[in-house]
């Protein structure tokens, strides 16, 4: 399984020498290695780059949205395959008790916020509520579960053969308690034993103390859940937009010192991971 990270910020960061290595796009990850289809996790501004990579290859594309906050959907309207006549595209998102996924997405993909409506796109777009049970997308196995973050929010576990990844970019497990009890930890079943855990690590410990309840994790919390779940590799993601490369480097060093076992990497635009 090959992962290409096209966006890793929690909100757009200003481009410049201070952010040159980690980049400034919001969340979007391409999951590849299935000749029958492609998976894309979230649709932040990195989605434009993912669209350039996937344009014209003809495979069906499945887009798995963790939630509908703007930083996770703002790249949808700039995803080139959506404008390819007849291209098959499926968009999956967390269910709501009040409005279906199409109604919620249409609030963004329609005037006055966007000039083109979903029904006017060239591709054949189907929208799905994320099911409560595991399902298959081509050769990928997909499991979703609700996690702690404001509003309906889903984390994902993706498997291909013996490889497994978990994706929880907006997650505050500390609100549920990080006591070391797996069954009490938000997202544990998704993260358990994965090869790669892409997890929210937006804040330093000092920053988190001022932002409890905002829906995000400190580096310390990201390491704690990675160790609890037995993840081989932690990939810190959803970087604070105000953090420079130097600050993220410092947080990465701290995370590596704290981990009891396993690797730690910081996500950045264009990073490719082989799982």
Word description of this protein:
The strands form 2 sheets. Strands 6-5-4-3-2-1-14 form a 7-stranded mixed beta sheet. The protein has a 7-stranded mixed beta sheet with strand order 7-8-9-10-11-12-13, covered by helices on one side. Strand 5 (88-93), helix 2 and strand 6 form a beta-alpha-beta unit. The longest helix has 14 residues, at 245-258. The relative contact order is 0.16. The protein has 275 residues and is α/β, with parallel strands linked by helices. It is built from 6 helices and 14 strands. The mean pLDDT is 94. Helix 5 (219-229) packs parallel to helix 6 (245-258).
Could you provide a short overview of the structure?
The protein is built from 6 helices and 14 strands. It has 275 residues and is α/β, with parallel strands linked by helices.
Helix content: 10-25%
Largest sheet: 7 strands, mixed
Shape: globular
Count helical runs.
6
> What is the structural class?
alpha/beta
N to C succession of SSEs? EEEHEEHEEEEEHEHHEHEE
User: Low-confidence segments, ≥5 residues, pLDDT <50?
Assistant: none
Number of strands: 14
Query: How would you write the strand order of the largest sheet?
Result: 6-5-4-3-2-1-14
Strand-residue fraction? Answer: 25-35%
Layout of helices and strands:
Layout: E1 2-7, E2 28-32, E3 38-41, H1 47-54, E4 61-64, E5 88-93, H2 101-106, E6 124-129, E7 135-137, E8 140-146, E9 154-160, E10 163-168, H3 188-191, E11 196-200, H4 205-209, H5 219-229, E12 233-237, H6 245-258, E13 263-266, E14 272-274
Parallel strand pairs: 3-4, 4-5, 5-6, 10-11, 11-12, 12-13
Antiparallel strand pairs: 1-2, 1-14, 2-3, 7-8, 8-9, 9-10
Helix pairs in contact: 5-6
